[in-house]
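FAQ: What does a multi-protein file look like?

Like this. Sequence, then tokens, then the next protein.
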Amino acid sequence: MVTYVVRRLIAAAFILLGASFLVYNLTAISGDPLEEFRASSAPNAAQLMQARSELLDLGTPAPIRYFKWLGGAAQCLVPFAARCDLGKSISGQPITEALGIALVQTLTLVTAATVLAILMGIALGIVTALRQYSALDYGVTFMAFLFFSLPIFWVAVLLKEYGAIGFNNFLREPEIPWYVAAGIGAVVGLAASMAVGGEPKRRAIIGGGGFAFVTALLILASVTRWFRYPGLGLAVILLAGVGLAFAVAVLVAGLNNRRALYSGLAAVAVGLVAYFPVQGLLNLATPLMILILGILTVLVGIGVGWAFGGYDRGQNMRVGGIMAFLVGGMIVLDRFLQAWPAYFDNGKIRGRPIATIGAQTPNLEGDFWIRGIDSFTHLILPTVALILVSLASYTRFTRSSMLEVMNMDYIRTARAKGVSERAVVMRHAFRNALIPIATVVAFDIGALIGGAVITETVFGVRGMGFMFLDGIFHVDPNPVMGVFLCVAVTAMAFNLMADLAYSALDPRVRVK
């Protein structure tokens, strides 16, 4: 394996050199960086032209300039040298500094969208494969391709109109008429009845229960003005935690392993006991503190699973750790919701919290929770837009891969031996179905680092895509090469990781 990795790295280095040479020279000869000064009638136009020529070293031919840039970029490979030099932009800003700012903006914008799209797409792909040619399969396929075919800029505009302007207007007087609540409940009930399948009586019971629950929940939220003064509290965390404990235990271990279920329920109980004591600590929260508390929470859940013992402690520990993480997440979410009224009434927000442009509210003051809500409200619309347009590919890839695997001989053999359906789907089929999906995800990670150019433009986020387009527009190769270098290295690294993951997912694949 070491020989294989070394060969791949050497090949990647030559590919990167050739591609970077082409990109640099194509950018340099694509236009005239002095054009705006040649048509200017300003008295200092000549001085400005001279200054920009010296800044971009235009007196040197483009191929020679590339090798100068390469010499500075090579310093980035020297450990602990702290001399990484990718040149300066047309405004005089060092590219390394600009890349740091743009990369944070891009990762903040698209990381959550990509992760959620992958998780939701894989889950929907598995369900539709298991329910092939059902109403659910046709419905998910139709909606996925509908959003996939829509232009991202149009989706973004619709989200601005109805997800921001309309919802902000609703938050002024957050009242939901009973007929609107009943309509939403009917849609949810219909979707639930399609998802569960089975006998008509069973589908009717599930659909009716979903309709009644969602309708009552929305009416209760309207009466209590929950949208203005939201929160979860112990009751919601308890009910959601118990439901999640059963769901996680079914997926990870199956209900036959009662100790795994008890581990999840015990993790929920520990979270409820710690709810009030931890509130004072959360008032002083920082990102590092939340990270440390998250790690400790998962370790406590793993310890709870280990304490229950049994024939498979590994399953207990996985269920306990997952449930501890989920309950901890609900406690943190509840603390964010407690800070919502203060954020809503802030003078910088002016009662319109869902933002349509930028990555944060300028000059907003507040603690960790206020700033966290501000970041979330700025990210929610672009995140939803990216999820809607990228969900279809993951859904269809997973569905087709699962259908192919489910028809294999070893799946029929596992069922004939009496293996539970959960184990057949999750342990045998899903693991092998992940191989083609790993390739798709590896390519998407490179696109993620490159930035969602259209989405960044519509929502006014100055990320990697904006930096790349700005360099092209001003015929400035340095920012273009900075973005190219990040994207190329990331894409090659994740493709190598995908190749190595094949052998972990399928023992029949060997890296040689």
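And here is the next protein:
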Amino acid sequence: MKKSSSILVNKNTITSIAIGGFDGMHGAHQKLFEQLDENGAILSIESGYANLTPKRYRQEYSKYPIYYYVLDNIKHLEGNAFIKLLNEEYPNLQKIVVGFDFCFGKGRKYCVKQLKELFHGEVVVLDEVKIDDIAVHSRIIRNYLKDGDIKTANILLTKEYKIYGKQIKGQGLGSTNFVPTINLYVEEFLLPNEGVYVTKTILNDTEYDSVTFLGHRVTTDGSYAIETHIFDKNIVNKDYSIQIKFFDKLRDNAKFDSFEELKEQIFRDIDEAKEYFK
């Protein structure tokens, strides 16, 4: 999916807002957004720790405009001052939607009870969302990604986990000794743990089946790399906008005794990934 630009809306028209951190724009977040009316908006409180779906990538996952507030700029406010700020920013605000564990203001001492007392409008509070008996929280999704459990992370995200990167020059071994790969430099995004993954690689707006390696190249130069191989194509280096969508993990990173053993394993990885997409 193409990354959307921010939606510009006159704040005077906004009648409902969802407030939260919204890193990941995951399944529980989407439940919050379902409670917004047609003139809704999303207020994302930025703590600086978002790495599942960093700030500028979130608009892709919602039809509602997203407004960003830096936590350090508002965390000193008492509860009534926070509500006053919302009413000034959105003068026709009638509804606020939050999660069950929402807290705000100085020392996070104001929570759902105080929100209902202070805001003279409708307050909708969603219970904890579970999928397959797993509570859906960004911190839990991060743990699954760090463990390489892409399938569970995707279930909680209700979409494939995706990163954006820039193409960089690799070792040059792929096209000559192994298979051609695109090497990526990735900032901002949390990377799954080291290993080989079934993926789709998006170059500009075109999506290809692929297999992707993340980790230290322990058999060759030992450096950390993100390398993706697109099946049956030799993509010439260009200034692509690159996205990687993760579907499943094939294996952990491993050291091989020879280039030949590594090459044989790479071909097995490719065959297994192709079978996945069949």
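Q: Is there any per-entry metadata?
A: Some entries carry free-text notes. For the entry above: The CA atoms of residues 171 and 221 lie 9 Å apart.
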